């Protein structure tokens, strides 16, 4: 905690008081979990935020770890349109890694610091009710197996937990009424949960600094971007690849009621706190008069 506070002056620390009892949903990216220094700083940041009375919900990914375990078990890693093709054998590994390994390890590390963290799967008490995701390619339906999309969130469960000062640590595994498990994109899960809770902030921790106007020029990092600019930059190809679905998630979170969305470079120490108090990262905003959109291309 003391090391964390070295990054913040007294006046800045006092700024966090205005967020007391507000909800922060944090998406913790799988690609930064193997960085021990960044993970330690992340846990320190969560400890500080909780000490100020902020109510925290964490949704984690785990793509690199899943890929590692699929390779160990001789199962091919296959992606279509950025989504992992998930047959029944792959789904078994996905659930084992996300809910059994990553989720419990992260929850345990938080609890070691005295935080009331609870690791749960999206299957627990129908937290993430889902259905099979239908993906099209040139009008043809692609069968990606047990890749799911969210139907609803058990808001009552989350509200009960955070009102009793617990920190839910959620693995993005969904389920349907027939009991099928689904692999849910962690960005989508965090955005849907954030919107459902009408959270004060959705902080998306990833392995990039934010959105660049010119991807080859780091000095063009944008401190903020609005929905219309996202649409325009996507058409121009400035926003491309994996950043497109990430931006769609951010927009959907705002449209569902999240007040602020921030893209944060999780590789940098204490970027979580610095994104709140400085221009670190990129803030996604909704300008007056902007219309909601589900797709930006």
TrEMBL record:
It is an enzyme of class 2 (transferase). SUPFAM superfamilies: Carbamate kinase-like. It catalyses: N-acetyl-L-glutamate + ATP = N-acetyl-L-glutamyl 5-phosphate + ADP. Keywords: Amino-acid biosynthesis, Arginine biosynthesis, ATP-binding, Cytoplasm, Kinase, Nucleotide-binding, Transferase. GO terms for molecular function: acetylglutamate kinase activity; ATP binding. Its main location: cytoplasm. The keyword Zinc-finger does not apply. Substrate binds at residues 62-63, 84, 183. Its EC number is 2.7.2.8. NCBIfam families: argB. This is Acetylglutamate kinase. It comes from Clostridium acetireducens DSM 10703.
